[in-house]
Amino acid sequence: MKVRNSLRSLKNKPGAQIVRRHGRVYVLNREDPRQKARQG
């Protein structure tokens, strides 16, 4: 999982889902699991 300042480019990929957990924003992608990231 990557930690990034901006998730905009990742959330536009096909299959991406935005999830909020414990005040953090995550992008999960079941189609391409390498695209997992957390903001902040």
UniProtKB/TrEMBL annotation:
It comes from the Bacteria. Residues 1-40 are annotated as: Disordered. Residues 29-40 have a biased composition (Basic and acidic residues). It holds the Pfam family Ribosomal_L36. InterPro entries: Ribosomal_bL36, Ribosomal_bL36_sp, Ribosomal_L36_bact. GO terms for molecular function: structural constituent of ribosome. GO terms for biological process: translation. GO terms for cellular component: ribonucleoprotein complex; ribosome. Keywords: Ribonucleoprotein, Ribosomal protein. Belongs to the bacterial ribosomal protein bL36 family. This is Large ribosomal subunit protein bL36. It comes from Streptomyces tsukubensis. The gene is rpmJ.
